[in-house]
Amino acid sequence: MLIDALTKALERSGSLDAFWNKLDAGDDASLGVASSARPFLVASRFTHKPQPTLVVVAGEDAADVFARNLAAYVGEERVLRFFERSDFPFNPKAP
Fold first, then answer.
1. Do residues 21 and 27 touch, judged by C-beta distance below 8 A?
2. What does DSSP assign to residue 37?
3. 3-class DSSP state for residue 38?
4. What gap in Å lies between CA 85 and CA 64, rounded to an integer?
């Protein structure tokens, strides 16, 4: 797949090694990346080290776009989209 070749190029550059090492050690890490590159970085990390990954975005539209973009890299069968709940805490109606 294309993501495999792109991930290898990213790994060879070593530009994100410090960031990934912090995450692997369980430390807090932050990285400023353009919103259009975020699905690629998540896909790249997943391709390098497959593990459950949670991505939180603001709003249903952003979630749809992110899930579609991520699925383009890793395949739809590897992306699970959680939809916004219609019930609210402390609502007398059962979820």
1. no
2. G
3. helix
4. 15
